[in-house]
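Page 42, continued from yesterday. The earlier attempt failed because a stray header line got pasted into the input along with the sequence. Redoing it now with the clean sequence only.
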Amino acid sequence: MRALDLAIIGLFLVGMPLLGIWIGGKQKSGSDYFVGEGKISWWVACLSVVSAETSTLTVLSVPTVAYIATPGEGGMTYLALAIGYIAGRIVVSMVLLPRYVAGNLVTAYAFLGKRFGNGLQGTASVTFLLTRTLADGIRLFATAIPIKVVLAAYGLSVSYWTIVVGLGIAMVIYSFFGGVRAVVWVDAIQMLWYILGAVVVIWVIAGRLPDGWFGKAVDANKFQLFDFSSNMLTGQYAFFTAVIGGAVLSMASHGSDQLIVQRLQATNDLRAARKALVASGFVVFLQFALFLFIGVLLWALYNGLNPTKPKPEGLGLANKDELFANFIVNDLPSGLSGFVIAGILAAALSSSLGALASSTVTDVYERVIGRQLPEADRLKHGRIWTIIWAGALILCAGFFASSNKTSADPIVVQALGITGYTYGALLGAFLLGLLFKRARQSDAIVAFVSTVIVMAFLILGVKFNKPDGSLIGIDFGRAAGTKVALAWPWYTLCGVVITLVVGGLLSLRHRSEDPLAEEGVKEAESV
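This time it went through. Structure tokens are written below.
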């Protein structure tokens, strides 16, 4: 790492927050701070959605997925998830998105408030706040990895805790002053930056590969796209598991997660929001393919050495997810290294703070005090909660930095696994309100809480035999060897089914339709 690289990185870390503040302008109201008052173009929102949902986890960890994949797993089977993502987004654009955009709702959970009542709106929002804090804590930790590698190259031993605090401060600056407009625009710029960095990396590696590398990669199934051999219950990227699970996961993340919905609400109208959402699915597919290909190239360059084994048997890395960062810092030419590292740091500034703040203020705080705040007060409270949630993300990132050494999964898999506890309940609550007109708020809350409890039991306590998918039994010990949990792409679908079954059965107690459901139908017909 040379002085030129450090200068590029330093300029980026200072310049990007300042750019966000300039783009955001002066915030005049809570709606402007949270939603942007409909001033964001669809293509900008599309790039922002992609940056928000993948960010550093994609840049650093997806290459690791392809690198460590065994011949039986296949190096490109992760792409089956992206196929499901596209299908799920199409459904959301037709079913849920019209209710958010046309209804002029500040958060996705305001729809649940209109359909069921304030109780479920608050319950869903609190669930989002907890889940998003944990997932984005992993994202912030992921961004600290290349910085630690850079500092280690200079002989500086800096803890992950110190690094994530510095990143958290940079992240909060433009979210605090610029609002959602700054977040969306900076997201779009950052995504283009790290995609260009990925292209640069491919160009550099391609000139260093040994003869015959492509044939070896094909023999090792590194270019295998679909996996029809793994068991559907235990194989994370078995074709039907990945496509079906990916579709339902995308319906949940892009239909019931305020992080994504907030960016779509910032578009001009429903048509623009739909274009942004569907187009983002195809962009994600191409982005996944790009970074998986980098993982295959690294595998060929390093001859498939184990990332964490000591040299010369392995690469001698402290963490498997340092694989890509290690190459960037130590093997890229001066200037290019700083450019790519800046692109990875760009992904860190893709902030969920605005979504967390908006949900806290409108879904929780206003429900507690029993009234809607004036716009000026919404803006004030939104900024206060932006700072509070930044502190929470820093704490979570530090926790994952301490615990990640014992995990066998890449960090991108850990982040997706976290959503399994609650995404099914969130999406299920929305579908319950649309499909079961008799369902009341009490039915929905009981179904919601029941789903979270059952999913926690299923994820933590039920183990399967990985080769054949047979049930081993109840075991709350750590999954290891052939004893594994249910493949995580099924988590969201299982949660949706549980919510609909419990809520649907409870709704049979009522002889008439919920009056709030009638209002929702009329509102939908007017879209």
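Notes: Strands lie at 462-465, 471-474, 483-484.
Reminder to self: strip header lines before submitting.
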